Amino acid sequence: MIHLNTDSKLTILMPHQNKALAEAIKNATPQQLDQLREGKDVKSLLTSVFHDKTTASKSDQTLLEILKNGAAFKNMGNVADELKTLVTSLKNSPDLALKSSTLEGFAKKMDSLNGNTLKTQMDNSGIFMESKIGSAAQIVPTLQEKLQTLQTLLTKSTLPEAKKIGGALEALVSTIDPNQPLTTLQSAETLTNELKKITDSLQKFITKGDVLYSKEMGGMVQKLDLLLAQPPLSFQEIKATLSQLYGALLSSAASDANALLDTLERLLKQVANPSEESLPLLKELSVKLRNTLASGEATFRESGKLAAKLGEFSHPNDLLIDKVLQESMEGDLKSGLMKLSEELQNSTSPHSEELLKQVDKLLTQIDYHQLLSALDHSTSLYFPFEWDQLENGSLAFKKVENNKFYCEINLQLKEYGELNLLMALYDKNQIEIQAHTETPQLKTLLQENVGELRGLLIDAGLSPRRIRFFEMKESPCASAEPYGSFGSDLGFEVKV
Question: Which of helix, strand or coil describes residue 353?
C-alpha cells in the first residue's frame, strides 16, 4: 500500500520526492545555486511559491530557468511512447504481466482525441495527483465550513424554528474535528445520520415558511405601495389593506411580526381620522414591511441553497478519506506508477531492476511538469496521446486577468520538425492563434488548410479573431515569452 502525504503542495517541491527537482538542482550552475540559497533552504524557498504571490521571486525564476533550459530536461522522451514500452515490458514478464492493466488503461491513441478524452487524460495524467489528495483531505473541513455558514444564517433569523435548527447545527459542528479525517464507516454514518435529521427539519421549515415572508404578504405590501402612490389617497382602501395585513400577521411566528402588529394597530386608528402625519407614517410602515420581506426571503433562499450543497455529504462512503482517495486515484497515472514502483522494489523478478528504471523515468517526467506548473503559476502537461507523427510534446494552460486564457502547445514532429502554437481565449468565445513552424513546408501546409481550421473553430462555438503563421526565423519563438503579447504583424494572418 502506498502512503500518500496530504501535504500535497509541498511534496511536489521537495527534492527527495520530486525527481525533476533533484535533477534540476544537480544540474544547476554555481551562480544559480547561489541564487537558490537566497531562500535559506530549499524547503522554505519552494514552499514560498504557494503563497499566492503576484510576482515570482528571483530564486523561483532561477529554478524555472534551469527546468526550461537544462540539458537533462530537453530530451526526456515521449511519455506516451515510454508508457507503451513499459506496458509491453510488463506483459513480456510472466510474473508481472497482470501489473500492466492499470497503466494500459491510460494509453489513448491520437484518433480518440476529443473534448471528453482530453479532459479525462488531463485529469488522470498524474499532474493533479497531489491536488486530488488535498481535495480528499478537505472533505471534513469543507463540511464544517458549510454547516457553520448555515448555522450563522439561521441563528440570525427572527423565526423560533430557524433558531432551533441553528442550535442543532451548532451542536453538530462542535463534534467535528476539521483536522481529523473520517476513517471508519461507523463515524461517517453517525455524522450523516445527524446531518439528515437537520436537513430534513430545514427542508420542512423552508417548505412551510411563514406568512410574514409569503407571496401573499408581498402582494398586500405591493397593493399598499400602489395606494400610497396614487393621489388623492383613498383612506378607505388603505384601511382595508391594513386590516388584511394585520389579520395575516396574527398567524406569524416571527418576532418581527410583533412590532409590525403594534404599528398596524396605531395606523388603523389613525386612518379612521387621517391627518398630514398619516402619509409619512404609512410610507414608513411600507418600507419596514419591504425590508422585513427581503430579509426573510434572503434567509429562506440562502438556506435552500446551503441545504442543497449539504446533499453532497449525505452518503457515508463519500466522507471516508480512504474511499475517496481510492476512487480519485483510480486511473491516475502517477498513482499507478508509484504503486508499481513499490511493488517492483519488493519483487524477485529478474526484470524488476530494468522496469524500475522505466517507471522512474516516467515519474521524473510527471514531476517535471508538476514543478513547471508550480513555478510558472500555470498547468503544464506532457502530450497525453499516442501519435506516430510525434517525437515529444507538451501543453501549458494559464489564466490571467479579465478571464483571459492562454494555451501553449509545443510539438516536435518527426516529419516537419518543431511546431509551437499559442492560443488566447477571451470574451468567452474570442480566440487568437499563432503558429510558429520550424520548416516552411509546415507553414505552407497550415496556410492551405486555414479555411478548414476556421470552420472547425466556428462549429465549436469559437470566433477566430486572428490566425497567424510564422516561420521561427521570422519572429521570436512563441515559447520565449509564452504569455506575453502576440507580437508583430509579421507572417500570414486571417482576420474575422
Answer: helix
Mean pLDDT, to the nearest integer, of 255-282? 87
pLDDT at 25 over 70: no
Q: Which residue has the higher pLDDT, 465 or 69?
A: 465
**CA dist 485 → 294, 423, 424, 434 (Å):** 47, 11, 10, 11
- The better pLDDT of the pair 162, 71 is held by 162
Give the residue carrying C-alpha cell 480528499: 136
Which phi and psi (to 5°) does residue 85 adopt?
-65, -40
**Residue 75 Cα to chain centre, angstroms:** 32
Q: Which 3 state secondary structure label does DSSP give 469?
A: strand
Q: How far apart are CA 305 and CA 298, in angstroms?
A: 11
> Contact, 474 vs 439, CB < 8 A?
no
- pTM across the whole model: 0.73
Q: Which run of H or of E encompasses 471? A: strand 463-471
Pairing between β-strand 417-426 and β-strand 404-413 as defined by DSSP bridges:
antiparallel
Beginning with the edge strand found earlier in the chain, give each strand of the sheet holding 492-495 in spatial order: 379-382, 390-400, 404-413, 417-426, 430-437, 463-471, 492-495
Q: What is the DSSP letter of 320?
A: B
Instruction: Specify whether the CB–CB gap between 303 and 146 falls below 8 A.
Output: no
CA dist 464 → 212, 401, 416, 455, 456 (Å): 53, 20, 25, 9, 10
How many Cα atoms within 13 Å fall on the side-chain side of residue 260?
30
For residue 192, count other CB atoms closer than 10 A to its CB. Answer: 20
Q: Which cell numbers hold the place of 285?
A: 410602515
CA distance 307 to 301: 10
Q: Which three cell numbers stand for residue 203?
A: 427542508
467: which strand partners?
433, 494
Domain boundaries, the chain: 8-128+332-376, 132-328, 390-495
- Comparing CA positions, the residue from 329, 342, 331 lying closest to residue 1 is 342
Alpha-carbon separation of residue 78 from 21, 91, 392 (angstroms):
19, 20, 5
Q: Give the pLDDT band of residue 73 (cuts 50, 70, 90).
A: low
- Dist CA 70 CA 84 (whole Å): 26
For the CA atoms of 258, 261, 262, 266, the dihedral, rounded to the nearest 10 degrees, stands at 170
CA dihedral 312, 318, 319, 324 (to 10 degrees): -130
Are residues 11 and 18 in contact, defined by beta-carbon separation less than 8 angstroms?
A: yes
Q: How many CB atoms lie within 10 A of CB 64?
A: 18
Residue 12's nearest CA partner among 252, 434, 268, 372 is 372
The three-class DSSP label of residue 15 is: coil
Full DSSP string of 71-131: HHHHT---HHHHHHHHHHHHHTSTTTGGGHHHHHTT--BGGG-SHHHHHHHHHTSSTTHHH
The grid cell for 262 is 403594534
